[in-house]
Design brief:
Strand order of the largest sheet: 3-4-5-6-7
Helix content: 10-25%
Shape: elongated
Oligomer: single chain
Protein name: Prepilin-type cleavage/methylation domain-containing protein
Radius of gyration: 39 Å
Keywords: Membrane, Transmembrane, Transmembrane helix
InterPro entries: N_methyl_site (IPR012902), PilW (IPR032092)
Number of helices: 3
């Protein structure tokens, strides 16, 4: 009988003594080249992320700037429009016993028909021409130049108002109220501070909008009435005797933003006069590299021709 001895290999799970120092090390680190490659890839990733973040912020700032300019323009036109819609208005005389006996019968009959109107006495554009209640001058309703406009109307106490002690519902651009006296709002551009300001019945002026590059006013004057073919014509200035013939007011506003933007060569806009081209890349100071937006609105004066 032949016997075989199978020798099983010996597995050592632990080396002790001097043999422990002779065991080969199995841990490995990265080489310098591998470290440099990893750092380069990491830096490139960070650079791409930062670039995307800056582009996103620039787009967001531009959109926010445009939205801010539109909101400012909407507010300015709401304030100016509120005053222009009241320009020249006075209380409609509804009481027949207060009529001036020297007035012609036709107007007296007209006022008599108005007695059916509610006692709240709505604002209208006729009044008794008496010593205590004279017909307002046309310049009280509207006056101004190409760079400013003064708007006025006559306020009155309203018995149905919630505060009878005050009793006046209408006020100027600053919220001031003078009762039956002439209430005025003077809109003008302060070029030094680039602000559109409003002066009420008393100084000082208060800003209505900031970052205003231009504020221009044109007046629609009715001409040719004597010929039977009346026409409307734009004027930058109006003679003192012709304010009663102004039928409308055009207000142009140029606003600029606060965020610097990249402007391609030749970027421009057309100014309020409709002719002048403004090169935005040549602007300096606070307007340099800024978004510019031009706004324009026309208001019809319902009171003119009736005062």
């Amino acid at each position: 009988m032949i016997s075989k001895t199978i020798a099983a290999p010996a597995f050592h799970t632990r080396l002790e003594g001097a043999n422990a120092f002779n065991a080969p090390l199995r841990q490995r680190g990265v080489t310098l080249l591998e470290l440099m490659v990893g750092l380069t890839i990491g830096l490139l990733t960070i650079a791409v992320a930062m670039g995307a973040l800056m582009v996103s912020r620039g787009v967001s700032g531009t959109v926010s700037d445009a939205s801010d300019l539109q909101q400012q323009a909407a507010y300015v036109y709401r304030v100016i429009g509120q005053q222009l819609r009241q320009a020249g208005s006075v209380k409609l005389e509804l009481d027949a016993k207060n009529q001036d006996p020297n007035r012609d019968a036709t107007l007296a009959q007209t006022l008599d028909r108005y007695k059916v109107i509610d006692a709240a006495a709505p604002v209208a554009f006729e009044t008794n021409a008496t010593a205590t209640n004279p017909v307002p001058a046309a310049t009280d309703a509207l006056n101004g130049t190409a760079t400013s406009v003064v708007i006025g109307f006559r306020n009155y106490k309203e018995p149905s108002f919630a505060e009878p002690a005050k009793g006046m519902r209408f006020s100027n651009c600053l919220g001031e109220n003078k009762g039956n006296a002439l209430v005025t709002s003077n809109f003008t551009l302060n070029a030094v501070n680039s602000e559109l300001r409003c002066i009420g019945d008393n100084p000082p002026a208060q800003p209505v909008a900031r970052n205003v590059a231009n504020f221009q006013v044109r007046y629609l004057v009715q001409t040719g009435a004597a010929t039977g073919i009346p026409q409307l014509q734009y004027f930058n200035t109006v003679p003192a005797t012709d304010w009663g013939r102004v039928q409308g007011v055009e207000v142009c506003l140029v606003l600029y933003g606060s965020e610097p933007i990249d402007l391609p060569p030749g970027t421009s806009y057309t100014d309020c006069d409709g002719i002048t081209t403004v090169d935005m890349t040549a602007l300096t100071g606070t307007r340099a590299r800024r978004m510019h937006m031009v706004f324009r609105n026309v208001y019809q004066l319902r009171s003119q021709g009736l005062i």
